[in-house]
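>> received
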Amino acid sequence: MEDHRLKAFCLVVEMQSFSKAAKAKFMTQSAMSHLIKNLEGELGVKLLIRRGKRVVLTSAGKIFYGHAVEILEQYRSLDRDINVLLNRVRGPLHIGATPTAADYLLPQVLYSFSKSYPDVHIAVSVSNAEMILHTLQHAGIEIGIVDGKVKNSAIVRKEIAEDEIVIIASDDNPLTKEKNIPPGELLSQTFIMPELGSGVRECIEEFFSSAGMDASSLPVSMTLGSTELIAQMVKSGQGISFVSKWSVFNALKEGTIAILNVRGKRLLRKFYLVTIEKEPATMVAKSFIEFLRAYRFFKPF
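>> returned
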């Protein structure tokens, strides 16, 4: 059980912003505003006031927020107690995943999990790691699957898979014929970069830093949020890029792109299951976490 309006209201209050709360819930700002207006109309009182870019509570809003937090916790407790009593796993499960995890890890897991737990309704939101961790802390999702480092000490993490970041170029790029390419030679190329806040972007910065170079000085022609779009641009000769090896498996088999043999250690990163608490709040979340931890992922390379 849950009340979408109460959750939306609490999220706006905690983030002090309609736009940030809308992003965290992966909905439009107008839809978020509509939920709050619907609440205010039903109560007949103003709950929130906009002050510049910030949102603050009215006196009535402060009272309402306190009760809303308690009600949402009671909903969670009710679900948990009933499901424990009946020894069943059913209800909603909200997951956040980075694009690579969503495209290449979750399809393997969700098919098997859904067969074992048909009464669980799964909602997956796809975003970069930074946004997922932010949403997790504000209760917008119950579980996150992210790649790269998790620096926040408030987040509980568990490694579930490994990934390799590779540098790709179109099959006719002259660098594809070279072996043991010095990192400095990459500066002759134009880069297509993943968005800020992504795990791959973090790997890029660490790679060039270890080579004594500043990633911010790279010649960048595009910054794209889609790995598939990055691969397409690389194929067309628009530049080179760093991507997850998972994401370009088919293109590598087709021979339309190639991995550059750049000098230095392999760029390896981990995929992590992330939560706020060590013990999940619901039977659904607990069951999914246990299922995921025991799952053996098929690596397509």
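>> The chain has ten helices and eleven strands.
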